[in-house]
Design brief:
- The protein is mainly α.
- It has one domain.
- The protein is 52% helix and 5% strand.
- It is built from four helices and two strands; from the N terminus they run αααβαβ.
- It has a two-stranded parallel sheet.
- The longest helix has 17 residues.
- The radius of gyration is 18 Å and the shape is elongated.
- The relative contact order is 0.12.
Length: 84
């Protein structure tokens, strides 16, 4: 077996293994929507809040409600929410 074939096989095995990382509940939620994010606002918010300290603005709350965002909620105290 050549080096290229081995690397190709390794990539396939890793892709299959990483694809199975979601729970059944997570897969159901993902399949229930036609896209990964509800909107560009949802994508921007998710990318901005990837770390341990959430950065939530009032407009994020309004957009989440109006656009029916889904996924794991970001929990913040009222004093942590930035004004627009």
């Amino acid at each position: 077996m050549g080096v290229t074939t081995r690397y190709g096989l390794l990539v396939v095995v890793l892709a299959m293994g990483l694809g199975a990382c979601a729970s059944d509940e997570q897969w159901r939620e993902w399949k229930a929507h036609s896209t990964h994010f509800a909107s560009v606002d949802h994508l921007t918010f998710s990318m901005r809040n990837r770390g341990p300290e959430p950065r939530v603005r009032r407009r994020d709350e309004r957009a989440a409600s109006a656009q029916s965002w889904w996924g794991q909620p970001v929990i913040v105290r009222p004093d942590q929410i930035f004004e627009d």
